[in-house]
């Protein structure tokens, strides 16, 4: 009986450790200028690629629309908008996809990399990664 309990505890601990080491899950975005939380983005995997959807807006702009977004996203509510699209695992980071800034409607190349277990470095850039900026998002527990 002790072996069964020990096995269960170790399995549960391993599962929690694996969750902490993945970029999938819910992340709180932080405004660069104010340092305040802006939204919650849920990152999920579909067919080996990552996508991130705004699931909650934490500011007073809860009904804002992406009026400057290109294409099919133009005029859609920011809440529910998929802003990260098509990233693939590349070593310790995910890249090869895009991120949209709903405030400006601009689309950038994107790279994600875990920074510890509860922080995610999100880099948006034009051309090469050196020509961009990084935001650090915090995991929502």
UniProtKB/TrEMBL annotation:
Signal sequence, start to end: 1-20
Keywords (A to Z) from UniProt: Signal
Transmembrane segments annotated in the record for this chain: none
InterPro entries for the chain: DUF2147
Residues of the DUF2147 domain: 25-139
UniProt name for this protein: DUF2147 domain-containing protein
Provenance organism: Paenimyroides viscosum
């Amino acid at each position: 009986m002790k072996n069964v309990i020990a096995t269960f505890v170790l399995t549960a601990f391993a599962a929690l450790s694996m969750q902490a080491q993945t970029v999938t899950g819910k992340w709180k975005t932080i405004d660069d200028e104010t340092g305040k939380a802006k939204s919650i983005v849920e990152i999920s995997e579909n067919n080996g690629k990552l996508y991130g959807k705004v699931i909650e807006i934490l500011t007073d702009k809860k009904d804002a629309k992406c009026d400057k977004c290109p294409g099919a996203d133009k005029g859609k509510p920011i809440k529910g908008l998929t802003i990260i699209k098509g990233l693939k695992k590349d070593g310790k980071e995910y890249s090869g996809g895009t991120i949209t800034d709903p405030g400006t409607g601009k689309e950038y190349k994107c790279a994600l990399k875990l920074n510890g277990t509860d922080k995610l470095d999100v880099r948006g850039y034009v051309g090469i990664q050196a020509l961009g900026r990084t935001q650090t998002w915090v995991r929502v527990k």
